[in-house]
Amino acid sequence: MSEKKRDTILYNGLGFPIRLINVPMRKAYGEWILDIDFNQLQVVALLMLVKQNNSFSGKEIAFIRHYFDMSTVEFGKLLGVSHVAVLKWVREERKMNVTTEIFLRSCILNQLKVTDKDFRRIYLTFKPEVISKRAIESIPLEIDADKIAC
């Protein structure tokens, strides 16, 4: 089996762009494929989304809902809104209220079972005036793929 590393790959497999750096690759059946733990990639991506300094995009909200394995109705109930509101967020017809987004970020931290100390440290970085701003241009998350290699 052949192995190599790529400096950077733009990965869209979670529905939104992620720039993977130091990407381990292996050759399987004549094709070069990513040699990473995709479950761990999802966890790292979720944690990075929680920590980002702008509001969630529609694609990121869709990813979070799918990660929680919830229907739009269930996801809406978790956040105290209708499934129609969830659909509008995903289609970016309407923006998620900042307090709802902070609650969702807290739910994600709880789901990831971060330590109480880390939960508090991350929670204290949530600034409504910063989170409420949406980046004009979607900036891909950057993840060191070496840390999620198989």
CATH superfamily: lambda repressor-like DNA-binding domains
- Whole-number tally of structural domains: 1
Order of helices and strands: EEEHHHHHHHE
Percent helix, as a range, is 40-55%
Protein model, in words:
The chain is of the alpha+beta class. The chain has 7 helices and 4 strands, in the order βββαααααααβ. The chain has a single domain, classed as 434 Repressor (Amino-terminal Domain), CATH 1.10.260. Helices cover 44% and strands 19% of the residues. The mean pLDDT is 90. Strands 1, 2, 3 and 4 form a 4-stranded mixed sheet that branches. A hairpin with a 2-residue loop joins strand 2 and strand 3.
Structural features:
alpha+beta, 150 residues, four-stranded mixed β-sheet, 434 Repressor (Amino-terminal Domain), globular, 7 helices
